[in-house]
Design brief:
With 435 residues, the chain is of the alpha/beta class. The chain contains 19 helices and eight strands. The protein has helices spanning 8-13, 19-27, 32-41, 81-93, 109-118, 127-135, 144-156, 170-179, 188-200, 205-208, 210-220, 241-259, 277-287, 308-321, 341-362, 369-379, 383-389, 393-402, 419-427; strands at 67-72, 98-101, 122-125, 161-164, 223-226, 264-268, 293-296, 326-328. It has an eight-stranded parallel beta barrel with strand order 1-2-3-4-5-6-7-8, surrounded by eight helices. Helix 4 (81-93) links the parallel strand 1 and strand 2. The longest helix is centred in the C-terminal third of the chain and has 22 residues, at 341-362. The N and C termini lie far apart (70 Å).
Length: 435
């Protein structure tokens, strides 16, 4: 396809209306001329690799609908790519806007290419994971050039955004040792970069060769998701020196990317006490100049393994209400295992509830419309209308069907004591039969 611009940011800065921006504006109930300056300034990102031709473009920004990312991918213990593809299809059908392939075993490229050839959701990856797999060599034998070549490979495969842990440097090694974090580094990619620096004595290649990486991203229009290697992995480490110092560096790297017309998202915490979330969002918005914030949770307590989709939804709702733009789902399997199909579903639903609740609180255009339709359907005891509004109509239907009432104009909890039924009859002047 011929195009006279390099990236979505470049086009917006030059006043060129791209097909992707036009699609996003329509979805967000905005005029293109409203959205274009936000993309030009970096406050909205439209991750859209020019080689991902089946993409259904989405915008990510605090003033837009909060988007959901789903992590999946094989591991040495769970190697079935067919199962992962089933998770992808399920996630897309449930409304997930992004899929991140975090595969850490086997031949990853065919799956990655299948995603960008068939999946309409935004596709993201973490190239540092794939470097060890791609070369089939131990971490300390890889060179900076090896890491950069894998970034190019992923760009050529059509991925829309890459998580790169550019913000930790050799200075971070001293900080981690000095400040004695309870959980050290819990970011998988961050720990790999940290270990590589420790073993080789060299600087972080994603930081040292950042300009070259930006050139690759500009060529393919790949959005950089600046990974938070020092995100807190427990409440005790939240908002500490290591996290904030890295965030300051991510702010610098954001500016450098924008100078080359490369779109940026900034990744955030992690595990954060509920009362610190709003401040974390404000600090990020200030330091990173309004770049879209992409958060994992945050999880608001450390003691709920098996239920961390709930702890993450609580934190995610508060984070998005205060400016986070993109929620990475957390499943019940977090900290425990690779998520199965049901875990994926539970994680998506919890994250979508959080995102939607935040969008209502922020006054995002059109966010409340579906809730008002649900209110109308419930008042009319219109069950089909309620299924049409439900985030998960299948589950709602099955619960009702499994505990069916004697009379269809109520449910099995209240029966003829139903307040809605009684009020409808009373206001219509009808006799209210209870017994």
């Amino acid at each position: 396809m011929n195009r006279n611009y390099t990236t979505q940011m470049d086009a917006a800065r030059r006043g060129i209306l791209t097909p992707e921006l036009e699609i996003v504006a329509r979805k967000e109930q905005m005029r293109p001329e409203e959205l274009m300056p936000l993309v030009a300034e970096g406050k909205v990102a439209i991750p859209a690799n020019r080689l991902h031709t089946c993409l259904d473009a989405q915008g990510i920004g605090s003033m837009l609908r909060t988007k959901i990312n789903v992590n999946l991918g094989v591991s040495r213990d769970c190697k079935d790519y067919d199962v992962e593809m089933e998770k992808v299809r399920s996630a897309v059908s449930m409304g997930a806007e992004a899929i991140m392939d975090l595969s850490s075993h086997g031949d990853t490229q065919p799956f990655r290419r299948k995603l960008t050839a068939e999946c309409p959701a935004m596709i993201g990856t973490v190239p540092v994971y794939d470097s060890v797999i791609h070369y089939q060599r131990d971490l300390d034998t890889l060179s900076a050039r090896d890491f950069i070549d894998v970034i190019r490979l992923h760009a050529q495969d059509g991925v829309d955004f890459v998580t790169l842990h550019c913000g930790i440097t050799r200075k971070t090694i001293d900080q981690i040792r000095k400040h004695k974090r309870k959980m050290n580094i819990v970011s998988r990619g961050g720990s790999l970069v940290f270990a590589w620096m420790c073993m080789t004595g060299e600087e972080n290649p994603f930081y040292e060769y950042y300009d070259e990486i930006l050139d690759i991203c500009r060529e393919y229009d790949v959005t950089i998701s600046l990974g938070d290697a020092c995100r807190p992995g427990c409440l005790a480490d939240a908002t500490d020196v290591c996290q904030i110092e890295e965030l300051v560096r991510l702010g610098e790297l954001t500016r450098r990317a924008w100078d080359k017309d490369v779109q940026v998202m900034v990744e955030g915490p992690g595990h954060v006490p509920l009362d610190q979330i709003a401040a974390n969002m404000k600090v990020q918005q200030t330091i990173c100049m309004g770049a879209p914030f992409y958060v994992l949770g945050p999880l608001v307590t450390d003691i709920a393994p098996g239920y961390d989709h709930i702890t993450a939804a609580i934190g995610g709702a508060v984070a998005a209400m205060h400016g986070a733009a993109f929620l990475c789902y957390v499943t019940p399997a977090e900290h425990l295992a690779l998520p199965n199909l049901d875990d994926v579903k539970q994680g998506i639903i919890a994250s979508k509830i959080a995102a939607h609740a935040a969008d209502i609180a922020k006054g995002v255009r059109g966010a409340r419309e579906i809730d008002d339709k649900m209110g109308d359907a419930r008042r009319a005891l219109d069950w089909e209308g309620q299924w049409a509004c439900a985030l998960d109509p299948e589950t709602a239907r099955s619960i009702r069907a499994g505990r069916a009432p004697e009379h269809d104009d109520s449910c099995s909890m209240c029966g003829k004591f139903c307040a809605v039924r009684s009020m409808n009859k009373a206001l219509n002047g009808e006799h209210i039969d209870i017994l």
